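look at this stuff:

>
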Amino acid sequence: MTIEEALKKASGMLRSAASRPRLEAEILMSHFLGWERSRLHAYAGDTLEEYEAYFALIKRRERSEPIEYITGKVSFYDIELEVGPGVLIARPETEILVEKAVEIISRYGIQSVAEIGVGSGAVSVVLARKFPYLHIVATDISEAALAYAEKNVKRYGLADRVELVKSSLLDGVKREVDMVVSNPPYISEDFELPSPLHYEPFQALVGGRQGDELLKEIVDTASERNIAHLVCEMGYDQRESIRAYLREKGLTEPLFYKDLAGLDRGFYLNLKGNQ
């Protein structure tokens, strides 16, 4: 079987599991061979040795396992991260959260940040790379997530500025920080998760019965600790519940931001003054 023949067969197998089956077949072939994708076209007629092992990867994807878990990596913003079972896969929507955090850090000259729910380390790594003076303390309750975050922090030489702490919210954080950033779980318990999400950690996806419970806890934590700035990702349908909660608490009006699809995706809160 040649490389091209294998790619055609794999594309057919992935038709029901992937929106771009040929692309994913090529990504998995590149991963399998350790090649750049461009090389596949130049050597398409070459014999594929041990093709059974390649199709074992295809079968995993055919069962809806995330391609990021199969390859062990995900592209996020301008970096590549190691990921695997037990850690949430960073998504393009969260790149907008990063952009909002960058804007706030730049505007207010923020020196220290806490990230709640570090996951693979995506947000903290990008922010630390963008601001060489920034100190970040990043928390998570998951040992698996913290293990991946540690790998990614070390990969980019940031261990001296990104401190990882096993903690719920900021319970284990003693130092004062200027800003909190978070992409917490915000899916409601009764939402029927699509098949690929069944592979990702439940606790990193579901935020409670309504879905916004953890978001509200994060607001409370930032307010109680007198932290000036808070930027959070949220569900597209949670704008009014978050706004009502902030009004109930007597907090300032948030600024909401949208994702590339035009849906509400997060908010920024200045807890010490005007936006």
